[in-house]
Design a protein that fits this description.
Blueprint (H helix, E strand, L loop, with lengths): L2 H37 L8 E6 L5 E7 L2 H13 L4 E7 L10 E4 L3 E5 L8 E6 L3 E8 L2 E5 L5 E5 L3 E4 L1 H9 L2 E4 L3 E5 L8 E6 L3 E7 L3 E5 L5 E5 L3 E3 H6 L5 H10 L10 E2 L2 E2 L1 H10 L3 E2 L4 H4 L4 E4 L12 E6 L8 E10 L2 E6 L1 E6 L9 H5 L1 E6 L10 E2 L8
Parallel strand pairs: 2-3
Antiparallel strand pairs: 1-2, 4-7, 4-10, 5-6, 7-8, 8-9, 11-14, 11-17, 12-13, 14-15, 15-16, 18-19, 20-27, 21-26, 22-23, 22-26, 23-24, 24-25
Helix pairs in contact: 1-2, 5-6
């Protein structure tokens, strides 16, 4: 065999080898994309990050996810197709956290961000006493998942990390929920004493002792304080002895009138549009998804036209950019229908507008960008509408 022929044969072998490797990697990427679409389609509620390093022998595949099913199916795919890779798989919560995979919010209103830094966009907020699942740590920040499954970053100092046994103790102990709009906890059972912290509606605290006019409470970090009984309610009674109605939802929504708009806000310190609807329903013992585009997927569909005869008080009204059909439409805003053509929403501030063209408070922009309405009150306990009582982050 000539030297020239040998070179050709070697070149062909190298080419074939590279082609097979490239094809395998391409198919692997397709499989990863399918896994993402099926098990982690929304990055706001599930983590699935991966990278493929083809410069290493064997190829290195790094995966980080909250979904065990992804790792199970991925390993099955690799074995079935006899693809050899160096696995660098991480299932969250990170094992470095050991057993401290839960946390309790320690501030009246904690700000959560899209990245582990103060300059990052605020994603959402979490109220005092809210339980979160801790997924991993990055310097002084923790990636956490809130009761509505939303994933974002919080300063480590803003929560008290606990294990499963401590969580069970927290759930079985007596708790109170703050029901006044704003207020404070005090160092002694006297409103004239020094303040321990501010409080907003929805804050939850452990009860250490019940006095005549005050509850002595304990914060997640161990601080103790006193709260007037008239400003709060026993948490278990509050969640169990209540029946949500359109009247209660509308009354709650109206009580927030004038609260400023705040991107990422879900408290009386400021609301964005979906933070407002979420909080209104939370104070009526119902947990809605965090964002407007997520809320648009729960409850019962009502109508995709401004047909006021079909709307009922308490319905969620969605606005945005209309696509070829409802599924392809882009939801960017949400409000709550009040009745008589009017709705209440957070836009600049919490306020009421009308969808009736002759009304003084008619909002032409919202009328023209209306997408559809969905009913929540007929879907409690189903169709993505969960009660506080049935959520594992509260009981």
């Amino acid at each position: 065999m000539s030297k020239f022929a040998a070179v050709i044969i070697v070149s062909v072998l190298v080419f074939v080898s590279c082609s097979v490797n490239t094809t395998s990697v391409d198919k692997l990427k397709e499989n990863l994309a399918d896994l993402k679409n099926n098990f982690a389609p929304d990055h706001r509620t599930a983590v699935f990050n991966y990278s493929i390093n083809i410069n290493k022998k064997p190829v290195e595949l790094s995966v980080e996810t909250t979904e065990p099913e992804i790792l199970s199916r991925l390993r099955s795919y690799l074995n079935k197709n006899k693809i050899q890779v160096k696995e660098n798989f991480k299932l969250l919560p990170d094992e470095k956290l050991k057993d401290k995979i839960y946390g309790i919010v320690n501030l009246s209103t904690a700000n959560l961000r899209t990245k582990p830094k103060h300059s990052a966009e605020m994603a959402t907020q979490a109220l005092l006493g809210t339980v979160v699942k801790v997924l991993k740590k990055n310097d002084g920040w923790l990636m956490v998942q809130t009761p509505d499954k939303y994933i974002s970053w919080i300063e480590a100092d803003a929560i008290a990390q606990i294990n499963k046994q401590e969580l069970k103790k927290y759930f079985t102990g007596k708790r109170i929920i703050y029901i006044s709009d704003f207020g404070f906890s005090y160092e002694t059972a006297n409103k004239k004493s020094s303040r321990v912290s501010d409080l907003v509606a929805g804050d939850i605290l452990q009860v250490k002792k019940e006095l005549r006019h005050f509850y002595q409470v304990k914060y997640p970090d161990g601080r103790e304080a006193f709260i007037p009984k008239s400003n709060c309610s026993e948490f278990t009674k509050w969640t169990k002895q209540f029946r949500v109605s359109a009247i209660s939802v509308i009354d709650t929504a109206k009580a927030f009138t004038g609260i400023p708009y705040l991107w990422g806000g879900t408290s009386e310190k400021g609301f964005d549009c979906s933070g407002f609807t979420k909080t209104v329903y939370f104070l009526n013992r119902i947990i809605l998804p965090r964002d407007a585009s997520q809320q648009a997927l729960v409850g019962t569909f009502v109508d995709s036209t401004v047909n006021l005869d079909k709307f009922q008080p308490g319905d969620l009204l969605f606005f945005g950019k209309r696509g070829r059909d409802i599924k392809s439409s882009k939801v960017v805003h949400v409000g709550i229908y009040v009745g008589n053509g009017k709705f209440i929403h957070a836009s600049g501030m919490v306020k009421r507008n009308s969808l009736k063209k002759n009304d003084v408070d008619f909002n032409e922009y919202r009328y023209n960008t209306f997408l559809f309405a969905r009913r929540i009150l007929n879907s409690v306990g189903k169709k993505g509408v969960q009660t506080i009582l049935s959520n594992k982050f509260y009981y």
